[in-house]
């Protein structure tokens, strides 16, 4: 009865539950020292965004559920309230501690046991930022509940087209729902390579029409009825919200609960920092002001407006020391007390407070947290550098390196795609030690001989952590997408084209784009390799197809121009690629085979095949023996034979001449 | 003709009516009476009304004379070209293939059993607007269904699964629900391309299609396709996901010549391409793809407005229902044409013929008979003291004295002897119902006639 009274007295308080604990080590080594809630996002702790969003959204009471680093978070909240942060004025925040919880589900079960939640509430997974008005959605949920007693949850999903950066690749969502927003099927496709999607027939037949959506992203935000918590308690195997949704939909009859969804679009935005890629895309979105009014120059949850918003999306704190020759190019936020020395370029990056950056430094697409020192001539791209790090001169940190707090790197250290932390890991080998203040967290890339499987892992890992900027490696996940779509598009053709063919098309596309946009060949190699794994073709086929692709390109890029001329241009441009693939005798054989095959179907090449072979020979891609060996196997009645013969004759003569010269 | 026609119209009337064989035995399906007109009149009239001057009518060879005679009587202005098919098992696509030399432009295909007040301008404009390869007209399911004569069987309509892109109304999926057992599998590429698909399960495919000319040519090559709905449409719809191979010109000419893929037919003219590229128009949003995703093959669906009436008279309930409703719907169906309810040559002595009855030519209705909401075909004879309620009586039927007929369909040439009471029955053609017989919910027909079907 006492509970009932409470209900009546506090009926109108709108509540939210924030689970602040991220169960996983996605953000290691940064989260070794800082809890995810305090991870700086544009130099403001993540939790401030969440709380500010909730209070602006109309929430009056928030339960902050913590499992570890409790004191740090408590202190932070206390400090924020003292500083009278924006949210503290209208919203009460209560920190709930339960150190025994091991999953999201545990937290909710614990919450159920505590009996703090009285009515509908907003449930937030860790790391959410947003600017949605929550009250209308809550109201809608209440209306739905009136019509459907079993309605347990309203998922909040944001419209996001295929290819949008804000879509987390691991959470590619497929949603099947009725026209009145009842969810029938909720599937996270992830990166699965499955080509078909199964939708139960009865789902379609029972409703006059259903909608199948693939243009949504999960905001990790949900409106819950009070029945959600008991449901979590009853089903102790629900570990995450996705488990919950799946379980409810599967056992709809048994549990008698239904799930609805709400679409947000237009200027409303919400997303969750679930991995570095999302961290990256959310940072960018905030810089691009999608989260308005939560933008740096408005002061996020603080009364002070620290930043000024300048042209090209540059946010600069007032006491930043910039020299005249240094330049902030675009999408940069730079915290107070930071100094940037001469001839240093910073673009698409976030620089924390009191960071010292030396001369001639290049920082691109990177995140540098507070109090770090970066000395002269460093090169930092696509990386995250924690608090209090010291990077000595001429270091090169690229390709999704994550440096934990307090790491010190010696002069001229080059790291690529590594996780570095300052403390010595407990059970790791000494070989991973760079110095006393830098230990590699995982063995990657260290072995000189990379076997195929490891390389595969490495590539996928690269895809995993940070989204490398388009201008650098355009393919990164785009190529995966295009390969995906392309081979699936052709899936419906009557003769299913084999993977090798698709691979060839892929390579042609990559190279064509590479040439047109003048991309670096190293990146193209990376792209070709990733295509190779996607289509599972052998090394032989790779060599063969790469050569064939280059031979094909003149028709695509230089329509109507002399074949040989344009081919030569391409060959010169792509020579690093050729060097990479034509490494041994068998590769040369593949190359010759490609030339032979292409020439047999193509007149242009046939006419100038001798010149092409000569080029390959001159540049040492093909050795004499291999050519002669191959030549002896050609049918001597073909025109092709006749074309090649002069060249081989010359070769033989040259050989004889040289051997006689030796004597 | 000075101008090339934009569309040619084709009516497929070489159907056997296998879904209502009880009443189509020995009679062309397209001549079944609906109100005071044969079934095929409705689509022909529709075409005539929107301005077609020619139509190709595909019929069975052995029914040609009968159909031609019947249509000549109707006084249609449109020029009908009769094309006959011999083989009874020929599919709709086969029929279409057989007339390919008569087709010189895009085609509008109608089925002879299409009765609707929909404005065909809608689908034609949709076709024009998107320069579509294929457009299909979809109808909402009619709601009111009355009890059907014959044995009480639960009538299960055939249902289609029709997937439409919610933004653009692109037709992206079409299959019959009976093709699936427990789940429908969609290619991932499809949902990545059309990120918001509405899957309908109770729309009715009206079998009104607008096809680009090249599809007819393509059909010529793909000889394995025999039906439009079952094979051609799903085939073309699937091909939308395909892209033409870019490296066309690199492949040796020897290789390409033997097998023409669909893109050898579906070509976008250079002008169209330039217009599309130059135009700021985009049919969809949500990704950065150009309009129509650069597809050359584009299928669209036109869903008729909810208030539109339309059915396919290809089964008993539909046939029976349309006849009961015809007076109400007539005005719209015929575009304000006057309904000749009672033919001038009919000899009506009865005083109890309500205003929902339709009487064809040379009918003889004796005195002291009663008629309600019924259709009486030509040269029927109804003798004294009989009453006919809610029934369809076809041609040359003789109904003797004191017969009570309720909710029945009586086929050509049947004779019902005096004193019979028949309710909810179907009486096959040429059937003779003996005196004083009482039947309810039965199919009365000469048994071997049914067998031969």
From TrEMBL, chain A:
It holds the Pfam family LbH_EIF2B. Residues 474-493 are annotated as: Disordered. Its main location: cytoplasm. Keywords: Cytoplasm, Initiation factor, Protein biosynthesis. InterPro entries: ARM-type_fold, eIF-2B_epsilon_N, eIF2B_epsilon, LbH_EIF2B3/5, Nucleotide-diphossugar_trans, Trimer_LpxA-like_sf, W2_domain, W2_eIF2B_epsilon. Residues 474-484 have a biased composition (Basic and acidic residues). The keyword Kinase does not apply. It is found in: Cytoplasm, Cytosol. PROSITE patterns: W2. One of its GO terms (molecular function) is translation initiation factor activity. Gene3D superfamilies: 1.25.40.180, Hexapeptide repeat proteins, Spore Coat Polysaccharide Biosynthesis Protein SpsA, Chain A. SUPFAM superfamilies: ARM repeat, Nucleotide-diphospho-sugar transferases, Trimeric LpxA-like enzymes. GO terms for cellular component: cytosol; eukaryotic translation initiation factor 2B complex. Residues 497-661 form the W2 domain. Belongs to the eIF-2B gamma/epsilon subunits family. Component of the translation initiation factor 2B (eIF2B) complex which is a heterodecamer of two sets of five different subunits: alpha, beta, gamma, delta and epsilon. Subunits alpha, beta and delta comprise a regulatory subcomplex and subunits epsilon and gamma comprise a catalytic subcomplex. Within the complex, the hexameric regulatory complex resides at the center, with the two heterodimeric catalytic subcomplexes bound on opposite sides. PANTHER family: TRANSLATION INITIATION FACTOR EIF-2B SUBUNIT EPSILON. This is Translation initiation factor eIF2B subunit epsilon. It comes from Aquatica leii.
Automatic annotation (TrEMBL), chain B:
It comes from Aquatica leii. Residues 9-143 form the Nucleotidyl transferase domain. It holds the Pfam family NTP_transferase. GO terms for biological process: cytoplasmic translational initiation. Keywords: Cytoplasm, Initiation factor, Protein biosynthesis. This is Translation initiation factor eIF2B subunit gamma. Residues 349-434 form the EIF2B subunit epsilon/gamma LbH domain. Component of the translation initiation factor 2B (eIF2B) complex which is a heterodecamer of two sets of five different subunits: alpha, beta, gamma, delta and epsilon. Subunits alpha, beta and delta comprise a regulatory subcomplex and subunits epsilon and gamma comprise a catalytic subcomplex. Within the complex, the hexameric regulatory complex resides at the center, with the two heterodimeric catalytic subcomplexes bound on opposite sides. Belongs to the eIF-2B gamma/epsilon subunits family.
């Amino acid at each position: 009865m006492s509970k009932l009274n409470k209900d009546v007295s506090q009926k109108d308080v709108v509540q939210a539950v924030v689970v602040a604990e991220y169960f996983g080590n996605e953000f290691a080594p940064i989260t070794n020292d800082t809890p995810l809630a305090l991870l700086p996002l544009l130099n403001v702790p993540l939790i401030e965004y969440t709380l500010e969003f909730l209070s602006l959204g109309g929430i009056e009471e928030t339960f902050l559920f913590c499992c570890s680093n409790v004191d740090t978070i408590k202190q932070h909240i206390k400090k924020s309230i003292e500083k009278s942060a924006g949210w503290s004025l209208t919203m009460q925040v209560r920190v709930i501690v339960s150190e025994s919880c091991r999953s999201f589900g545990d937290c909710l079960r614990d919450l159920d046991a505590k009996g703090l939640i009285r009515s509908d509430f907003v449930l937030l997974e860790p790391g959410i930022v947003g600017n949605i008005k929550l009250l209308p959605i809550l109201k809608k949920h209440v209306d739905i509940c009136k019509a459907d007693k079993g309605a347990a949850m309203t998922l909040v999903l944001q419209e996001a087209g295929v290819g949008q950066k804000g879509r987390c690749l691991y959470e590619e969502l497929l949603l099947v729902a009725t026209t009145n927003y009842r969810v029938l099927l909720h599937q996270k496709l992830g990166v699965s390579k499955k080509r078909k999607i199964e939708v139960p027939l009865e789902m379609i037949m029972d409703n006059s029409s259903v909608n199948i959506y693939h243009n949504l992203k999960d905001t990790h935000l949900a409106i819950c009825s009070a029945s959600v918590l008991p449901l979590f308690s009853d089903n102790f195997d629900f570990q995450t919200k996705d488990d919950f949704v799946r379980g409810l939909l599967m056992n709809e009859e048994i549990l008698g609960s239904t799930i609805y969804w709400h679409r947000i679009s237009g200027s409303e935005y919400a997303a969750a920092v679930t991995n570095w890629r999302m961290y990256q895309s959310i940072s960018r979105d905030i810089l691009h002001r999608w989260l308005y009014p939560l933008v740096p120059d408005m002061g996020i949850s603080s009364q002070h407006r620290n930043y000024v918003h300048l042209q090209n999306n540059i946010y600069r704190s007032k006491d930043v020391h910039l020299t005249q020759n240094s330049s902030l190019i675009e999408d940069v936020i730079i915290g107070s007390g930071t100094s940037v020395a001469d001839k240093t370029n910073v673009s698409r990056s976030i620089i924390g407070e009191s960071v010292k950056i030396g001369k001639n430094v290049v920082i691109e697409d990177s995140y540098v947290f507070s109090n770090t020192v970066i000395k002269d001539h460093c090169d930092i791209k696509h990386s995250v550098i924690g608090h209090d790090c010291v990077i000595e001169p001429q270091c090169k940190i690229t390709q999704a390196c994550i440096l934990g707090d307090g790491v010190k790197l010696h002069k001229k250290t080059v790291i690529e795609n590594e996780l570095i932390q300052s403390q010595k890991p407990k059970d790791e080998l000494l070989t991973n030690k760079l110095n006393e203040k830098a230990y590699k967290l995982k063995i990657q890339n260290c072995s000189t001989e990379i076997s195929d499987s490891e390389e595969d892992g490495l590539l996928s890992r690269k895809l995993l952590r940070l989204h490398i900027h388009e201008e650098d490696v355009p393919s990164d996940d785009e190529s995966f997408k295009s390969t995906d779509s392309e081979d699936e598009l052709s899936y419906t053709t009557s003769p299913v084209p084999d993977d090798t063919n698709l691979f060839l098309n892929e390579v042609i596309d990559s190279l064509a784009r590479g040439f047109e946009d003048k991309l670096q060949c190293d990146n193209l190699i990376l792209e070709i390799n990733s295509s190779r794994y996607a289509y599972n073709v052998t090394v032989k086929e790779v060599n063969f197809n790469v050569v064939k692709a280059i031979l094909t390109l003149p028709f695509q890029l230089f329509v109507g121009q002399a074949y040989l001329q344009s081919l030569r241009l391409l060959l010169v441009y792509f020579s690093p690629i050729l060097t990479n693939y034509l490494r041994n005798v068998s590769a040369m054989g593949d190359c010759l085979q490609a030339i032979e095959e292409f020439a047999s179907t193509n007149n242009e090449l046939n006419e100038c095949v001798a010149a092409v072979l000569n080029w390959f020979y001159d540049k040492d891609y093909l050795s004499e023996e291999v050519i002669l060996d191959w030549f002896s196997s050609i049918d001597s009645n073909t025109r092709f034979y006749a074309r090649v013969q002069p060249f081989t004759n010359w070769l033989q003569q040259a050989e004889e001449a040289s051997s006689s010269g030796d004597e | 003709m000075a101008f090339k026609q934009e569309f040619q119209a084709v009516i497929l009337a070489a159907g056997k009516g296998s879904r209502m064989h009880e009443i189509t035995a020995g009679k062309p399906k397209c001549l079944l009476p609906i109100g005071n007109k044969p079934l095929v009149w409705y689509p022909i009239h529709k075409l005539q009304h929107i301005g077609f001057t020619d139509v190709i009518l595909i019929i069975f060879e052995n029914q040609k004379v009968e159909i031609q005679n019947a249509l000549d009587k109707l006084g249609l202005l449109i020029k009908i070209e009769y094309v006959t098919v011999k083989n009874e098992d020929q599919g709709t696509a086969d029929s279409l293939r057989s007339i390919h030399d008569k087709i010189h432009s895009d085609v509008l295909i109608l089925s002879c059993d299409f009765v609707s007040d929909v404005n065909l301008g809608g689908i034609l404009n949709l076709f024009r607007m998107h320069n579509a390869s294929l457009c299909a007209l979809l109808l909402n399911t009619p709601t009111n269904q009355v009890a059907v004569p014959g044995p009480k069987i639960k009538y299960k309509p055939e249902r289609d699964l029709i997937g439409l892109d919610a933004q653009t109304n692109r037709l992206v999926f079409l299959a019959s629900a009976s093709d699936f057992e427990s789940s429908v599998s969609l290619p991932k590429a499809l949902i990545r391309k059309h990120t918001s698909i509405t899957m309908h399960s109770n729309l009715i495919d009206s079998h009104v299609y607008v096809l680009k000319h090249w599809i007819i040519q393509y059909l010529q090559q793909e000889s394995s396709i025999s039906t439009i709905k079952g094979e051609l449409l799903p085939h073309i719809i699937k091909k939308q996901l395909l892209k033409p191979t870019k490296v066309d010109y690199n492949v040796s000419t020897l290789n390409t010549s033997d097998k023409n893929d669909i893109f050898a037919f579906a070509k976008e003219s250079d002008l169209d391409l330039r217009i599309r590229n130059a135009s700021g128009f985009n049919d969809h949003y949500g990704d950065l793809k150009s309009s129509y995703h650069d597809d050359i093959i584009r299928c669209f669906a036109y869903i008729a407005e909810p208030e539109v009436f339309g059915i396919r008279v290809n089964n008993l309930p539909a046939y029976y229902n349309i006849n009961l409703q015809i007076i109400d719907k007539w005005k719209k169906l015929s575009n304000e044409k006057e309904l000749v309810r009672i033919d001038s040559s009919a000899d009506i002595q009865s005083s109890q013929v309500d205003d929902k009855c339709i009487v064809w030519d040379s009918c003889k209705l004796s005195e002291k008979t009663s008629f309600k909401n019924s259709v009486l075909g030509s040269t029927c004879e109804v003798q004294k003291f009989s009453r006919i309620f809610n029934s369809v009586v076809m041609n040359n039927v003789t109904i003797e004295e004191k017969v009570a007929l309720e909710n029945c369909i009586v086929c050509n040439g049947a004779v019902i002897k005096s004193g019979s009471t028949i309710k909810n029955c179907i009486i096959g053609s040429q059937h003779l119902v003996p005196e004083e017989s009482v039947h309810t919910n039965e199919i009365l027909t000469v048994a071997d006639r049914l067998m031969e079907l």
